[in-house]
Amino acid sequence: MNSMYQDLEKVLFSKEQIAERIKEIAKTIDNDYQDKRPIMVAILKGSVMFYADLLREMQIHAEMDFMAISSYGNSTKSSGEVKMVKDLDRSIEGRDIIIVEDIVDTGYTLKYLKSTLKTRNPASIKVCTLLNKPARRIVDIEPDYCCFNVGDEFVVGYGLDYAQLYRNLPLIGVLKKEVYSK
Ligand code: IMP
After folding, report:
1. Active site residues
2. Ligand 1 close to Cβ of residue 155 (< 6 A)
3. How far apart are CA 30 and CA 28, in angstroms?
4. Per-residue burial over 122-138, b = 16 or more CB atoms within 10 Å of its CB, e = otherwise
Protein backbone atom coordinates (compact mmCIF):
# COMPACT_ATOMS: atom_id res chain seq x y z
CA MET A 1 0.00 0.00 0.00
CA ASN A 2 1.22 3.49 -0.86
CA SER A 3 0.50 4.94 2.61
CA MET A 4 0.87 8.64 3.48
CA TYR A 5 2.31 7.61 6.81
CA GLN A 6 5.51 6.25 5.34
CA ASP A 7 6.37 9.76 4.07
CA LEU A 8 6.38 11.23 7.60
CA GLU A 9 9.58 11.96 9.46
CA LYS A 10 7.75 12.60 12.73
CA VAL A 11 4.36 13.36 14.25
CA LEU A 12 4.08 16.78 15.88
CA PHE A 13 0.49 16.66 17.16
CA SER A 14 -1.69 13.58 17.42
CA LYS A 15 -5.39 13.39 16.64
CA GLU A 16 -6.11 13.41 20.40
CA GLN A 17 -3.87 16.42 21.12
CA ILE A 18 -5.53 18.39 18.31
CA ALA A 19 -9.04 17.54 19.54
CA GLU A 20 -8.14 18.53 23.12
CA ARG A 21 -6.71 21.90 22.08
CA ILE A 22 -9.66 22.67 19.80
CA LYS A 23 -12.03 22.15 22.74
CA GLU A 24 -10.09 24.76 24.72
CA ILE A 25 -10.08 27.28 21.87
CA ALA A 26 -13.82 26.75 21.27
CA LYS A 27 -14.49 27.47 24.95
CA THR A 28 -12.47 30.68 24.78
CA ILE A 29 -14.36 31.83 21.68
CA ASP A 30 -17.69 30.94 23.34
CA ASN A 31 -16.69 33.14 26.26
CA ASP A 32 -15.44 36.06 24.17
CA TYR A 33 -18.52 36.09 21.89
CA GLN A 34 -21.21 35.22 24.47
CA ASP A 35 -23.92 37.57 23.19
CA LYS A 36 -22.72 37.78 19.61
CA ARG A 37 -23.21 35.77 16.46
CA PRO A 38 -19.89 35.82 14.60
CA ILE A 39 -19.44 34.89 10.97
CA MET A 40 -16.76 32.20 10.91
CA VAL A 41 -14.79 32.60 7.68
CA ALA A 42 -12.95 29.47 6.56
CA ILE A 43 -9.97 30.00 4.31
CA LEU A 44 -10.07 27.14 1.81
CA LYS A 45 -8.73 24.60 1.59
CA GLY A 46 -6.22 24.25 4.40
CA SER A 47 -8.53 25.19 7.26
CA VAL A 48 -11.34 22.78 6.38
CA MET A 49 -10.64 20.06 8.97
CA PHE A 50 -9.89 22.57 11.73
CA TYR A 51 -12.96 24.65 10.83
CA ALA A 52 -15.35 21.70 10.87
CA ASP A 53 -14.08 20.46 14.23
CA LEU A 54 -13.82 23.90 15.85
CA LEU A 55 -17.35 24.91 14.89
CA ARG A 56 -18.79 21.67 16.25
CA GLU A 57 -17.13 22.31 19.60
CA MET A 58 -18.53 25.85 19.86
CA GLN A 59 -21.83 26.37 21.66
CA ILE A 60 -22.68 29.95 20.65
CA HIS A 61 -24.60 30.72 17.46
CA ALA A 62 -22.27 31.26 14.54
CA GLU A 63 -22.63 31.60 10.77
CA MET A 64 -20.42 29.99 8.14
CA ASP A 65 -18.86 31.50 5.04
CA PHE A 66 -15.91 30.59 2.84
CA MET A 67 -13.08 32.30 1.02
CA ALA A 68 -10.40 30.81 -1.16
CA ILE A 69 -7.06 32.36 -1.98
CA SER A 70 -4.16 31.22 -4.10
CA SER A 71 -1.43 29.36 -2.25
CA TYR A 72 2.14 28.29 -2.80
CA GLY A 73 1.50 26.01 -5.75
CA ASN A 74 3.71 22.99 -5.31
CA SER A 75 6.54 24.71 -3.52
CA THR A 76 7.22 24.98 0.22
CA LYS A 77 8.26 28.64 -0.03
CA SER A 78 5.97 31.69 0.13
CA SER A 79 6.09 34.07 -2.81
CA GLY A 80 4.38 36.87 -0.91
CA GLU A 81 1.80 37.00 -3.66
CA VAL A 82 -1.80 36.45 -2.62
CA LYS A 83 -4.84 36.39 -4.89
CA MET A 84 -8.51 35.84 -4.11
CA VAL A 85 -10.03 32.85 -5.88
CA LYS A 86 -13.42 32.75 -4.14
CA ASP A 87 -15.06 35.60 -2.24
CA LEU A 88 -17.58 35.48 0.61
CA ASP A 89 -21.22 34.97 -0.32
CA ARG A 90 -22.68 37.74 1.83
CA SER A 91 -22.01 41.22 3.18
CA ILE A 92 -20.09 41.43 6.45
CA GLU A 93 -20.99 45.04 7.23
CA GLY A 94 -21.51 45.55 10.97
CA ARG A 95 -20.75 41.88 11.71
CA ASP A 96 -18.18 40.23 13.94
CA ILE A 97 -15.79 38.20 11.80
CA ILE A 98 -13.50 35.38 12.84
CA ILE A 99 -11.09 34.31 10.10
CA VAL A 100 -10.21 30.63 10.50
CA GLU A 101 -6.76 29.81 9.04
CA ASP A 102 -4.62 26.68 8.89
CA ILE A 103 -1.26 28.32 9.52
CA VAL A 104 0.24 31.79 9.79
CA ASP A 105 3.69 31.64 8.25
CA THR A 106 5.16 34.82 6.71
CA GLY A 107 1.89 36.63 7.49
CA TYR A 108 1.31 37.87 3.91
CA THR A 109 -1.94 35.95 3.55
CA LEU A 110 -3.35 37.19 6.82
CA LYS A 111 -2.40 40.78 6.07
CA TYR A 112 -4.15 40.55 2.71
CA LEU A 113 -7.25 38.94 4.23
CA LYS A 114 -7.57 41.40 7.09
CA SER A 115 -7.08 44.48 4.94
CA THR A 116 -9.50 43.19 2.28
CA LEU A 117 -12.23 42.43 4.81
CA LYS A 118 -11.68 45.68 6.74
CA THR A 119 -12.74 47.74 3.72
CA ARG A 120 -16.20 46.13 4.02
CA ASN A 121 -16.82 47.71 7.45
CA PRO A 122 -17.31 44.72 9.75
CA ALA A 123 -17.83 45.43 13.49
CA SER A 124 -14.69 43.44 14.32
CA ILE A 125 -12.18 41.03 12.79
CA LYS A 126 -10.27 38.39 14.71
CA VAL A 127 -8.09 35.54 13.53
CA CYS A 128 -8.13 31.97 14.76
CA THR A 129 -5.39 29.70 13.45
CA LEU A 130 -4.57 26.05 13.91
CA LEU A 131 -0.82 26.67 13.67
CA ASN A 132 1.53 29.60 14.01
CA LYS A 133 5.11 29.73 12.74
CA PRO A 134 6.50 32.88 14.41
CA ALA A 135 10.11 32.24 13.34
CA ARG A 136 9.19 32.84 9.68
CA ARG A 137 7.14 36.00 10.12
CA ILE A 138 7.85 38.83 7.67
CA VAL A 139 4.70 40.93 8.19
CA ASP A 140 4.06 42.26 11.71
CA ILE A 141 0.77 40.46 12.36
CA GLU A 142 -0.40 38.01 15.06
CA PRO A 143 -3.38 35.64 15.34
CA ASP A 144 -5.86 36.23 18.19
CA TYR A 145 -6.43 32.52 18.82
CA CYS A 146 -3.89 29.79 18.08
CA CYS A 147 -3.85 26.06 18.80
CA PHE A 148 -0.12 25.38 18.47
CA ASN A 149 3.15 27.12 17.65
CA VAL A 150 5.51 25.26 15.35
CA GLY A 151 9.15 25.80 14.48
CA ASP A 152 10.63 26.57 11.08
CA GLU A 153 9.69 23.32 9.39
CA PHE A 154 7.19 22.38 6.70
CA VAL A 155 4.23 20.58 8.24
CA VAL A 156 1.38 18.60 6.69
CA GLY A 157 -1.84 16.91 7.71
CA TYR A 158 -5.19 17.85 9.21
CA GLY A 159 -5.89 20.12 6.21
CA LEU A 160 -2.36 21.23 5.45
CA ASP A 161 -0.90 19.99 2.19
CA TYR A 162 2.23 19.46 0.24
CA ALA A 163 1.38 19.62 -3.50
CA GLN A 164 -2.30 19.05 -2.63
CA LEU A 165 -1.52 15.82 -0.77
CA TYR A 166 -1.54 14.81 2.92
CA ARG A 167 -4.54 17.02 3.79
CA ASN A 168 -6.47 13.93 4.89
CA LEU A 169 -3.98 12.85 7.54
CA PRO A 170 -5.80 13.06 10.90
CA LEU A 171 -2.62 14.32 12.62
CA ILE A 172 -0.01 17.01 12.01
CA GLY A 173 3.46 15.89 11.05
CA VAL A 174 6.68 16.74 9.29
CA LEU A 175 7.49 15.20 5.92
CA LYS A 176 10.73 13.42 5.22
CA LYS A 177 13.04 15.81 3.34
CA GLU A 178 13.36 13.39 0.43
CA VAL A 179 9.63 13.76 -0.29
CA TYR A 180 9.90 17.39 -1.38
CA SER A 181 13.46 17.40 -2.63
CA LYS A 182 12.52 14.86 -5.31
P1 IMP B 1 1.77 33.01 4.72
O2 IMP B 1 1.07 33.93 3.78
O3 IMP B 1 3.24 32.91 4.43
O4 IMP B 1 1.51 33.32 6.18
O5 IMP B 1 1.29 31.55 4.41
C6 IMP B 1 0.07 31.09 4.68
C7 IMP B 1 -0.26 29.88 3.84
O8 IMP B 1 0.89 29.15 3.40
C9 IMP B 1 -1.02 28.92 4.70
O10 IMP B 1 -2.40 29.23 4.69
C11 IMP B 1 -0.67 27.57 4.08
O12 IMP B 1 -1.57 27.27 3.04
C13 IMP B 1 0.71 27.76 3.51
N14 IMP B 1 1.75 27.22 4.42
C15 IMP B 1 2.64 27.90 5.15
N16 IMP B 1 3.43 27.08 5.88
C17 IMP B 1 3.01 25.83 5.60
C18 IMP B 1 3.42 24.52 6.07
O19 IMP B 1 4.32 24.33 6.90
N20 IMP B 1 2.71 23.48 5.54
C21 IMP B 1 1.72 23.61 4.65
N22 IMP B 1 1.30 24.81 4.21
C23 IMP B 1 1.93 25.91 4.68
Report:
1. 105
2. yes
3. 5
4. beebbbbbbbbbeebbe
